[in-house]
Amino acid sequence: IKKKSASSHHHGYLDKLINRFEIKINACDSSRGIENLVNSPTVTDRILAAEIIGNSGKQDWGDFLLILSRDIEPDVKLASIKAMARLSNPNHSYVLIGYLNTPVFYPYAFEALVKMGESSIQFMEEIFLLPEADNTLLSRVVRIYGKIASPASIDYLLSKIENQNRIISRQALLALREAKFQATPGNINRILNDIVRLISVMSWNFAVF
Predict the structure, then answer these.
(1) Average pLDDT of each block of 10 consecutive residues along the chain (209 residues)?
(2) CB 99 within 8 A of CB 109
(3) 103: region left, alpha or beta (phi > 0 left; psi from -120 to 50 alpha)
(4) Region at 66 (left for phi over 0; alpha for psi -120 to 50; beta for the rest)
(5) All residues at 6 or more sequence positions from 166 whose CB lies less than 8 Å from its CB, including other chains
(6) Which of 205, 189, 195 is nearest to 162 (CA)?
(7) Nearest-angstrom CA–CA distance, 65 and 126
(8) How far is Cα of residue 142 from the mean position of the Cα atoms in its chain?
(9) What is the pTM of this model?
(10) Closest CA to 170 of 204, 205, 203, 199
């Protein structure tokens, strides 16, 4: 009887393993399979869901990553952020921008936004209109522009060196250098004037203190 009980126990465990394996295989091809993994009580299943979505190229599965990005488990959140970088869906930009101020997830959100490139710039640009956005967040966004180094990001950086906030204008100059920006006769005077203004402001602050 004991042998039969032990055999039944192992058989039941094997059935569960086979069932989970089949679910994961099916998830690669069906939205329902992905949904099952996303809603699974098992952390590794939810992490797997993020990995499958990130490598699928299926933009219509992007909403599942939004769900996973709000997961209570840090490992699931991290997997969703990494998957967002691979899927490159612009609709994830707001979520990634929100993680730029979090110590644990900031490096991954930063890299994800860089990989998205120009498609995420318009979303990031809106952050400069928010009064609650601090210098740390804004500086990181400016650094991302420099990493993207596209014509659109360069244009935004050129406008940022005229920012009244000297922290942002200085970061914009550094980002332009990182982007290997080459000044043209049409904008060299504009840049030089902004550099002079920035130096003047810094000199005045040193004199005051």
Answers:
(1) 50 56 60 90 92 90 95 95 92 93 92 92 92 93 95 90 84 89 66 60 48
(2) yes
(3) alpha
(4) alpha
(5) 198, 201, 202
(6) 195
(7) 22
(8) 14
(9) 0.75
(10) 199
Cβ neighbours around 54 below 10 Å, total? 20
Q: Write out the two tokens for 204.
A: 């005045």
| Token pair for 199 | 């130096």
Distance, in Å, from the CA atom of 48 to the CA atom of 45, rounded to the nearest integer, reads 5
Q: What number of residues does the chain have?
A: 209
Asked if residues 38 and 46 have their Cβ atoms less than 8 Å apart, the reply is yes
Report the candidate in 110, 118, 115 with the shortest Cα–Cα distance to residue 143: 110
Q: Give the distance, in angstroms, between the CA of residue 104 and the centroid of all CA atoms in the same chain.
A: 12
